[in-house]
Amino acid sequence: MPIIHSLLDTDFYKFTMGQVVHRLYPDVDVAYGFKNRTATVKLADFISEKELRFELDWAKTLRFTASELEYLRSIKRTDGKAMFDEDYLRFLSDVSLPNYDLRVVDGRFELEFRSPWQTAIYWETLALSIINELYYRAMTGNMSIDERADFITEGTIRLNRKIIELLESPHVKFIEFGTRRRFSGSWQNNVVIELAKHLPENLSGTSNVLIAMKHGLKPIGTMAHEMFMVCSALASADDEELRKSHNKVLVEWEANYAHDLLVALTDTFGTDFFFSDMTRKQAKMWSGLRQDSGNPIEFGEKAIAFYQRHGINPLTKILVFSDGLNVERIIEIANHFHGRINVLFGWGTNLTNDLGFMSLSLVVKATMTNGNGTVKLSDNLAKAMGAPEDIEQYRRVFGYDVDYSEKCVY
After folding, report:
1. Packed helices 225-234 and 13-24: angle between N→C axes, nearest 10 degrees
2. Rg of the chain over CA atoms, in angstroms?
3. Treating both helix axes as pointing N-terminal to C-terminal, what angle do 49-61 and 123-140 enclose, rounded to 10 degrees?
4. Which end of the chain is more exposed for a tag (fewer CB within 10 A), N or C?
5. E strand or H helix at 259
6. Quick one: which H or E segment has residue 265?
7. How many helices (H) does the chain have, and how many strands (E)?
């Protein structure tokens, strides 16, 4: 059976960003590139080019159904108004995934998507889900029925251990974030069912829109690095405009989502720059911040100090941690900041892909905007990306001097 059955089988932030892109950047051309950061695994040694093409081609045939669009229409902001306007929903009713370029070089897939941003944006999560599931199908393809049962049993045992630990930590709140690197779609669905059943007070929702719709959960997401990366590349011809592009994204996001979704991703060009660039007015208006690289404890302490400098009570704000989490790390961070600032966790790969196999660190990132290369600096050098000459410009403009580097496990 094809892996993707619905265009809703993706992260909610694809739609929150997609609406802004449709409104403000409909004519911007973008290229997205796939990268396997687990360099020891040559994916084309496990996945045939033919089967990958089949899955990608199948996804291109999908369209949003009337019931799926009605579900998106039903999502409300806190002021009671619709999250997505009718113009955007009409656009989605006609949207289809654009073409892709795929080739195999030395056992590795080179996969790229080029089109206007407002259509290319929907490929990321779908492509990652496809490649991940094909890899694990290959890993289990020659197993006997008993062997397959053993790894499902192992995954269930590991999930139950997590549930038991969190039952003892009712103050820990988390979102299921595991779509992009899940073991399979059916396993992710099973995980969410178990979490909703046993941890209803801990589970705040899911990033997966299809699963949220099926199980009556809250779909959660705001923005990804691509908002900053694409918009900065549009301004990269001038250093001053490049520096201003970061706050311009915040201003545009506020204008589109003034009542909701005001959790800012901090690390695209280094969190230290973010704290110097976000104004006191914005710090008051935005609900909180998301950490996706670097040391989470150090980040949280910087965030608390940032709010205190602006005369803001940290207990009125929220920090969302989403970088390579496991249950032990989640509980450690929650206990460290308990009573000092509100914390929430975006828990991904270790939640939906923990059955005894090695997980892969796969990403699809925007690489080009209207012919200009994009850059992501991060708070972990292992996550940085971009051409050397572009990275040098961005380091200089954003005052980036991070030397922290940690292997990307997820």
Report:
1. 20
2. 20
3. 140
4. N
5. none
6. strand 263-265
7. 17, 11
